[in-house]
Amino acid sequence: MADVVPTKHEIILQTELAEYVRRTTKSAELHAATQASVPGGIASDYQVMDPYPFYVGNSNASSIVDVDGNNLIDFHGGFGVTLFGYKHPYLIEAANKVFAEQGSLISLPTPYLLDASKILVERFSLPFWRFFNSGTEATLDAIRLARARYTRKYVIKIESGYHGHHDAVWVSVHAGAREVGSENPSVPFCSGIPKEVSDLTLIAEFNNLDSVKKYLAKYPEQIAAVIVEPILLNCSMIKPKDGFLQQLIELCRAEKVAVIFDLVKINTAIHMKHIIKYWDNENCGPDLYTLGKGLSGAMCPVGAIGMTAEFAALIPSKVQLSGTYCGNSFALGMVTAVQNYATESRQDTLEMLSKFMHDRVKATIDKHKLPAIVEYVGNKGCITFFKKGHELPCVRHYQ
Ligand SMILES: Cc1ncc(COP(=O)(O)O)c(C=O)c1O
Residue range 196-218: average pLDDT? Predict the structure, then answer.
């Protein structure tokens, strides 16, 4: 049998992998030891890394130092959440102030509740806010609110969108969960999600209004909500086509279906002016926003739902939203501090840095005629590689 010759790509991967293993012996040991008491040796399955993750010993500003002493520049930034870097003096001071004033107070409101909500009202133009402990909690309760408001059971989710790990949305998270062009059944991400539950989530396509209309016709007055990221960030970076979000909102309004815009990845990382231009917010905006991680600049877990007065009126008589740590003093003190710090001019600086990176990556792609495109919005950016011969000018679909 003829020898299989490795491709250039495989050779680079093997070389880098060998180098990684050589430089991370302590991480390898720690990972092996941790696996004895922690399934998979990681805290969240999104931390899986081949052949094992590196363990962080220290972090400062834009650098992290792993337990082997490797000094690394962090371009990941906690999924874009660590907006101002590690140990930022302003954030450390704010954290100390909250502790000095309030201690770690849970289960009772503090003045930070008013401060944090006022900032969000102004920033996101929805009049009412409730706070949670994660993006997952926010999308879970936003869907519950929508189901309660219309007494309907179905929810439409966009294929390949990610909205957290609860049963209603942990379906069809990856493009490729089905064959290209086949019908879109709701595909659970993992075992433990009963089919009776995943069947309540209908899978539509981003930038394809007809795929939403199809369900509205098939299940009249049974669909409570459409949940969507205004820019899909789970699968490269897919921006909405002109008019898509506006038409989606208008369609849903006519059919009394709640529109939930999930901004868990977008909030703070991307200034709203870059997002809101995709629909006419003055006359017709989404009914609910869900926010999360970026709200506190990675200082603590947090989530939030913004809502119109119609949804707020359901709480607490018809729908109860609760949680011991919801709106705890530390989280809301940090939300207030981070949001005050993330001024428009600072967010513009982040955008400028993104553009700087984007332009240089683009120049490299162009120079070497690579089958790839690079996109950015706010502090987020993405490089998408194509199979040679399948290059596109931009990505507007995820398959
Ligand atoms: C758009 C979106 N929604 C919801 C979530 C869930 O947030 P969390 O991980 O805080 O539960 C995420 C997490 O990445 C997200 O990107």
Answer: 95
How far is the centre of ligand 1, averaged over its atoms, from the C-alpha of 377 (Å)?
18
What is the band of 78 on the pLDDT scale with cuts at 50, 70, 90? confident
Q: If you measure from the C-alpha of residue 136 to the centroid of ligand 1, how many angstroms do you get, rounded to a whole number?
A: 6
In one-letter notation, the amino acid at residue 320 is Q
Structure tokens at 87: 């140990």
CATH no., domain 89-344: 3.40.640.10
Burial of 51 (0-12, 13-18, 19+ CB in 10 A): exposed
**Which tokens sit at 398?**
């995820």
Taking domain 1-74, whether its CATH number is 3.90.1150.10 is answered by: yes
Asked whether 294 lines ligand 1 (CB < 6 A), one says no
Banded model confidence at residue 177, pLDDT cuts 50, 70, 90: low
Spatial distance between the Cα atoms of 119 and 185, rounded to a whole number of angstroms: 40
Indicate whether residue 162 lines ligand 1 (CB < 6 A): yes
pLDDT of 5 above 90: no
> Percentages helix, strand, coil for the chain, rounded to the nearest 5?
40, 15, 45
CA distance 295 to 116: 10
Contact 290, 135 (CB under 8 A): yes
Locate CATH 3.40.640.10 in the chain.
89-344
Q: How far apart are the C-alpha atoms of 171 and 185, rounded to whole Å?
A: 9
**Pocket lining: 229 vs ligand 1, CB cutoff 6 Å:** yes
- Is the CB of residue 66 below 6 angstroms from any atom belonging to ligand 1? no
